[in-house]
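Checklist before submission:
- one chain only
- standard amino acids only
- sequence pasted in full

Submission:
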Amino acid sequence: MQLETEYWVSMGLKVICEGCETRDQLKFLKQHNCDLVQGYFFSKPRTVEEITELFIAEPDGLIDIMSGEAG
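Returned file contents:
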């Protein structure tokens, strides 16, 4: 994995990793230059309506997804 992410980073590309479910996986992905991470650790799958409500509920438009361990 490290060799692959280093290759993409050297080309100036962002690395997106899917399927992060635990804090240990997130730590590993960060150590291996993953720029963006998604998975159940951050949020269960949501509908467009649920995501829209989530953003509308935040007056400043900022959501702390890095806290992880979503319900």
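Reviewer check: The chain has a mean pLDDT of 81.
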